[in-house]
Amino acid sequence: MKDWNVSRRDLLKTLGVGAACLPLLHVERAFGQTAPAARKYLFVVMGGEGYRPMQWLPQVGSFATQTLPDTLSPLESLKSDLLVVPKLTNPNYTGCNNCGHGAYGTIFYGGPATGAEYKEPGLMGPAGFSVDQVVGEALFMQHADLKAKTLPLQLMIDTFTSDGTTGAHRCFWRGAGQPVNPIIDPYAAYSMLVMGSVGMTGTGTGTGMGMTTNPPPNPDAMRILAQKKSILDYVGKDLERFGMRLGTDAQQAIQGHLTSIRDLERTLSGSTGGTGGMGGGGGNPGGGVVNIPIDWTKDIADQNNPACTGANLNGALNCWWLNTANYPDVFDVHMKLGVLALASGVTQVVTLQTVDATGDAKSFQFVPGVQGDPSNTARNGRDLHAISHNPIIGGVDEKQLIDKWFMGQFAKLITLMKGVTQAGGKSLLDNSVVLWGNHMESGDSHLAQSVPWMLAGSAGGYFKTGQCAASAGKPLSGVLASICDAMGVMPNPTFGAPIDGLT
Amino acid sequence: VSPDTGAGLVDLRRVTIVEYNNTVRDLLGDNSAPLSVSVIGGDQWDDSTFEVGGAIGDTDADALMTVSFKLATTAGQKLAQLMPGVPIPTDAAGQANWAQQFITTFGKRAYRRPVLPAEAADLFTLYQAQLAAPISAPDFPTAMTAVIAGMLMSPAFLYRWELGPEKPIVQSNLIRFNQYELASRLSYWLWASMPDDALLSAADAGQLATDDQIEQQIRRMLADPKAADGMLDFHIQWLKLTDLPTLTKTAASFTPDLISSMLGETQRFTMSVMGPQGDGKLQTLLTSPNSFVDGNLAKLYGVPNVTGTNFVPVKLDATQRAGILTQGSFLASRSNPDEQNPILVGVNILRRLFCMDIQKPTNIVVPPVTAAAPGTTIRSRYDIHGMNTCATQCHSLIDPPGFAFLTYDQTGAWMATDAGKPVDASGSFNLAGNTFTFKNAVDLVGELAQNQTVQDCMASMQLRYLNRRLEADGDTTSLSTSRKAFSAASDDVRELIVALAKTNAFTARLPNPGEQIQ
């Protein structure tokens, strides 16, 4: 997002701090206030290419009496917070049973795919809201202090988009033809949600998710903020008028655009400049101090790198947050950002896409023991897709090593969320549910009707964690219904009924 | 205008990223090309049609606000240039009048049609809000910044729907595009940008009403330097060269400089064929060994005595190069990082030159191609398709045209041998009642250029680019008329464009489902 460069640099100057020490973020609670009813939070992570089933699948039943299989071993010490939901069916997915890739676009919708505009039969999108949008929309309506419905993040998905239709690299949707476009650059996400949408609005002496140093008042920034509000007021009226005579599809697109403008109005109206920027109203209700340092040095250094702002990102590897060699670091920053966004009360829903529908063009040579093929990382070489098809090379099960590495990331996320203390001594994880999704059982079989999902956190006691559920043969849409139920929002009709055994 | 013979749908669409950047350049004189896929969600595409701007979601709206405000801030500093000849008064009442005049004159260019009274009133209210608290704009340019940003955020600017909220012109079962819609249809088709003053004036005067008037405009526009933008946009999307700017290859010679040289060549070459100096023929586009090289490309193609960054016209070795498909831009776009990929080449030729609907197999697990090993040629590793009955059905069509290009490596350089053996680029395939037999790519493109299906497909591609959709039932007459004119003009694409513009495919559309037309 190169056009934020100036404001970011200005902000750094304003703060009078070097880039490397900027990252210290605080969420400070308002001590002495009566704690409000605990909010609930949803963090959806989209994985891909399934898991090697033999090394991943635990026995159905409590974890108290079993040691987790090798792939899940990074989660062993956290297993009381874990709920494995294996072998889910995806009955509304009409692709063949071993064509799991095609289910990517609709996996968090659970209903049938739509969209004649997409030519590839499998790689379609849904006609309605995916679960993150259902929950995000409802909570956004409920809580006036929220600044965003969701924080959508992605890990380098858009570096390889020529490999199919929109449904091959978008899995969160607001309706037919309306994918949620996730943010690829962590610093852009940070600017947008944490520092305030305009990047310069934080003034005054408020608390909330501000910086350790409050920026001094900036009359220009205040004026620009007010100008932007006035512009949005005009654009909103203009969109309403514009949409009057349009056909049904076009009206939907304009309605979606209008909703985005209204959301932005609300985001800006929260940035009054007197509360330390965005999050001033929300901030970890009744909770303690959150201190999750993020090192932005490399990201900031690349803000003006042309490789990061090309007209098309396919293959743009010369940029910190696009280079697959930095995948672990960018993953780490995205998870921290997501947790900060939840802890600060900016939003109650975060999504993170870690791979696209096919896993193409992602090399995992950073995982110890994975050789990959340095000379041919796109498509036909040993990228994640190729490794999934032929997991074992030279006697080493590379796919399982990668599966286990991902579970290590899951463990990091859970640990981060457990480290945030909220009202009544509960952790952020206690008040949350993390859905770690996938769209096929295993990358070599591509089974679309035996989907391995995992949950972490009980969402305030709703889910019964510490077990592997007897979910085999039950529809994954039922898990989406359970999540809505846990979050206290109305599910999509397409989700059907919650499934048994999770609570 | 031809009699009512049906038409297809033309949807509301957001301008593409390329169109947006061209449009702000022509509207504001701003060359910063501020939009890219790292700023907002990318354009949508599929394998058969052309790009359409994606829907605007929360993150896009925020990014567009940032971009619009920045563009408007720059524009605010040169207001006089945006409404030349009308001095900016220094008193408040005079400035308010100036603002009102600006809203209608500049507004007509921004919205590509006259600003409606209700829109003008709201924009003036926006201006007035800038003068009052809490904004209290310190000066006139600051106040006007918001007005300009408001216009840049407006759907009338962002979407290709110049009708706006007005009533459409209904003629029996069809909707006729009004004069301003026609002006924009011409400009986004031929320039990938907004109409110029001449087009808007013609629309004002109702002078886009007859075939002759439209033809006159097209000939004027094709001779304008902006036609190079339109030609480049069409050819880049037609041959799917969109990824080229950020591709990486294992060869050290494949640098960002070389990529930009490749795009420079394709732009100059297409304009040399389709521009006023060229013959406009599809045959020339597909077979001419004449091209333009700079130092980078001279090295790639083995042209002696050309160095530096200036492009010079050259005749390339006609045994190695013939037309756009043998240029670096296409060859590098259709290859793997480390070697040519005959499947990518073959599929692209079938889809984009024969208009075939080729889909990826979705009901089978496609095994990866065998890894390279000493002594094995690329062809031998792909020839494995011939031993698999399931794969043979598609690949007997896909592979041969791809194999024809095995004499080029992943950077587009000539490759005489593979794994120590002379490259076998020969082949044969049957398609659309014709048998194509060839020794190499130069042979093949010669046959393609003569083929009626390929020529007819170009008419379909122009229609798809114009309307951003596949051909519809209602296009049958439009297509057959323009294909006939194309043949009669010895496959001059410019005449195809003129002919297509005289059909309903250009001048009319069907009502959209749910559209209020009364």
Description:
- The complex is a heterodimer of chains A (503) and B (518).
- In chain A, strands 2-12-3-11-10-1-7-6 form an eight-stranded mixed beta sheet, with helices on both faces. Chain A has a two-stranded antiparallel ribbon with strand order 4-5. In chain A, strands 8-9 form a two-stranded antiparallel sheet.
- Chain A has eleven helices and twelve strands.
- With 503 residues, chain A is α/β, with parallel strands linked by helices.
- In chain A, a hairpin with a 2-residue loop joins strand 8 (392-393) and strand 9.
- In chain A, 63% of the residues are buried.
- Chain A is globular, with a radius of gyration of 22 Å.
- Chain B has 518 residues and is mainly alpha-helical.
- In chain B, the strands form five sheets. In chain B, strands 3-4-11 form a three-stranded antiparallel beta sheet.
- In chain B, helix 2 runs antiparallel to helix 6, helix 4 (92-111) packs across helix 5 and helix 20 packs across helix 22 (493-501).
- The longest helix of chain B has 20 residues, at 92-111.
- Chain B is globular, with a radius of gyration of 25 Å.
- The mean pLDDT of chain B is 92.
Measured between the Cα atoms of the first and last residue of chain B, the distance is 24 Å
Low-confidence stretches of chain A: 1-35, 115-122, 195-217, 272-283, 376-380
Task: Determine the number of helices of chain A (DSSP H or I, runs of at least 4 residues).
Answer: 11
What percent of residues of chain A adopt helix (DSSP H or I)? 25-40%
- Largest interface, by Cβ-Cβ below 8 angstroms: which chains and how many residues each? A-B, 98 and 91 residues
C-alpha geometry of chain A: globular
Q: How many strand segments of chain A?
A: 12
